[in-house]
Amino acid sequence: MSELEPASINPATGERLRSFASFTDAELEGRVARAHAQQRDWAARPLAERADALRALGAHLRTIRGEAAATMTAEMGKPLAQAQGELDKCAWLCEWLAEHGPAMLADEPRSRVAVEGSQRSYVAHRPMGLLLAIMPWNFPWWQALRFAAPALLAGNTALLKHAPNTTGCALAIEAALLAAGFPEGCLETLVASHGQVAGLIADRRVRGVTLTGSTRAGRSVAALAGQHLKKTVLELGGSDPYLILPDADLDHAAAVCAKARLFNSGQTCVAAKRFLVCEPVAEAFTEAFLAQLRAAVVGDPTDPTTTVGPLARADLRAGLEDQVERSVAAGARVLHRSEVPDSPGAYHPVVALGSVDETNPAAREELFGPVAAIMTVRDEAHAVAVANRSDYGLGAAVFSRDVERAEAIARDQLDAGACFVNGMVRSDPRVPFGGVKDSGYGRELGRHGMLEWVNAKTVWVD
Description:
Blueprint: E1 7-9, E2 16-19, H1 25-44, H2 47-63, H3 65-76, H4 80-105, E3 108-109, E4 120-127, E5 130-134, H5 140-153, E6 157-161, H6 167-179, E7 187-190, H7 194-202, E8 206-212, H8 215-227, E9 231-235, E10 240-244, H9 250-262, E11 272-278, H10 282-294, H11 314-329, E12 333-337, E13 351-354, H12 361-364, E14 371-377, H13 380-388, E15 392-393, E16 395-399, H14 403-412, E17 418-421, E18 436-437, E19 440-441, H15 446-450, E20 454-461
Parallel strand pairs: 5-6, 5-8, 6-7, 8-9, 10-11, 10-16, 11-14, 13-14, 16-17
Antiparallel strand pairs: 1-2, 3-4, 4-20, 9-19, 12-13, 15-18
């Protein structure tokens, strides 16, 4: 796979907005050295002071919301209202962590487990050091900050290697931290090549690596990090199943499923991708679901009436088109294909595929765009079995009027990192987020995410 050029190219028009020069090795070393040197000073600051910096960042994000969202839309095509919502969510994350994060990082006395033979023993949560984050383009602010905000609060510093097509967003993230009062070196944006990133993973100053991206990229990063005994957190792809049981509220399920499939133009790791519909309601659900898809508006992401924008790059559109073609060749039927603007943009139609079985590419592969795969299953047990046979395990959802039964399926039967009942799978600052199987390991957000990037140090006083 060829390496992408660091450049902002508007996917709605194909216009090149800005090109960026990759850092020389000397420039990269300067950034790494600065972040490494800053970490000790940053960690020495009182936790309350670090929390205040996060709180100030949240407030600052609300003031730059319009400008930052416009850059995001121009670089990767997210509908503008959704881009503004992403900035709002980032602000909420910072403010929530500033309020609740210090309690998560407080020392834990071991008297809770009756440690005998010590006058005093406790667990101190100390920062790991300098961390490397390799981030994707689909949620350029949210993905970066849901790692960086808790990591910085814990006293770490960060190197941010963002996707080449959202370099403008990456630089804006660094600028936002500086404007909010974070010291220089707390977060350094790197415009780096694949080879330079491999060198960073090997660098002894870097203590941990996190990646949000494809399963293939996750395997590569995990292998490199493993050679150097570096901790990793990997948030990878998904093919989330949404189970429609016979007693589901079909109108509600159809509306939620359509939103879950089309949000961010379908370019979401935790999007609904496989719709496992029990046979007794398959026809009725499909009719209601298609009605929701037909209401989607594919168009200019700056137009407030648009609900589905372009894909982030032309090559991504070509890849999705190939997946649809192979799925149809393997037996899937096109139930719906929307119109797209007559423009040079990377627009892909909203597509619904029926007659999808487990061998079909639409079921086996992650569809990263506005394409829905509808699969008819015999019953609840069959739905669970099909859901779990996927290599992925990021999210899942169950729709049923019997909430207690649906909750039991979500809790005890589905093999995924997050299972929702009668709702859309989504990330939230208050709860952990992450997957199992080929969807990765480790957690972001919530207390579990906070503690990924600390050294749980035992302190024992005899």
